[in-house]
Amino acid sequence: xxxxxxxxxxxELEVRTRIDEHQRDNVVAGQRALVRFDAMPDLEIExxxxxxxxxxxxxxxxxxxxxxxxxxxxxDRIDPRLRPGTSTRILLxxxxxxxxxxxxxxxxxxxxxxPIVYVRNGDNFEPVEIKITHRTETHTxxxxxxxxxxxxxxxxxxxxxxxxxxGGPSLxxxxxxxx
Length: 179
Description:
1 helix; about 0% helix
């Protein structure tokens, strides 16, 4: 009852990969990809993303709360040297975004379930609701603010609770003592 032989049909091959959570919005079915094979550095084959999972799974690559989404890429052609289980490197070809206003990911905050940034207005920063159009690991393309606007990298609403030069929270005087 034990299998003694596996037979693979290699007339069509798919590459399976995992997409990090912060990149999930940038990967869609139909997107083009370039696949490089570790065992054959001279071989590059183009392919098409055929599916991206909607349900995340915990990352096996890094410890912590990171999640990943399974994806499959169908190769446009088959090289006779390819075998199942070959490790790959994949370059996903994203769309070109012309004339986008972008900010680092850190100044994008969530307020009442909506994305906002704090934009300088004179001596203060005011919250401005934005629409996120694209994200990368380090930047966010947004609509709703002018190009060149100065945004706060920290939430100024939270900083109003601190006092003093150190920026730390104000502590009450110790019992029986003064400041």
